[in-house]
């Protein structure tokens, strides 16, 4: 309530991490009884880069019980910084669901979060399948009849090596939602999430490489045309 410690967190307006500070005006009572009583209070923290960037946290006090009752920006907005980079390589709906899955898992919702992750994982595997299908000698039959672990193996060369080597872990993706317990889903969550991130990391790296190639091509082109002049 009276802390003036700086807080290091994500600033949605800077779109990066920043240090937030709060300023308390007036005097702070050191008598613990003075802190008691019913009421509500808000804490406002300002970004050290720009004091217009602010975080609000609302609390309710009843007797000696204090409860957080709200905040702005949302918990999800503050927690999705690490995920944000993947917006470039996920479609809009998948990106939204990826965030939702992480938020749900953070609140202990196992099956719900798992269902979202599974869907994103399946989309990524399907995208690899769409490319693999045009390979010479591709046999569609075993893929279509295969379970997830078998499909991942058939897509070797189109999916990260780690996924292919550890494909047996992904057996759980073939199980029906009704067969899974909350705890099984929560235990599988980080593994499936990491699998998704591995695929997305490769996509990000490929996009960065492509961009650099384009830049190099342009630089060479302008150098050559200058030399001609
Ligand atoms: Zn800021």
Shape: flat
Distance between the termini: 70 Å
Radius of gyration: 25 Å
Tally of separate helices: 8
Enumerate the strands of the largest sheet in spatial order, edge to edge or round the barrel: 1-2-3-4-5
Query: Which CATH class of the largest domain is shown?
Result: Mainly Alpha
CATH fold-level label of the largest domain: Four Helix Bundle (Hemerythrin (Met), subunit A)
SSE run: EEEEEHHHHHHHH
Description:
By secondary structure, the chain is of the alpha+beta class. The protein folds into two domains: 7-78, no CATH class; 82-214, Up-down Bundle (Four Helix Bundle (Hemerythrin (Met), subunit A)), CATH 1.20.120. The chain has helices at 75-79, 81-84, 92-106, 110-132, 140-145, 148-154, 161-165, 182-228; strands spanning 7-11, 16-21, 39-47, 54-62, 65-72. The chain has a five-stranded antiparallel sheet with strand order 1-2-3-4-5. A hairpin with a 4-residue loop joins strand 1 and strand 2. Helix 3 (92-106) packs antiparallel against helix 4. The chain is flat, with a radius of gyration of 25 Å. The model has no long low-confidence stretch (mean pLDDT 87). Zinc ion is lined by residues 11, 13-14, 18, 47, 49-50, 53.
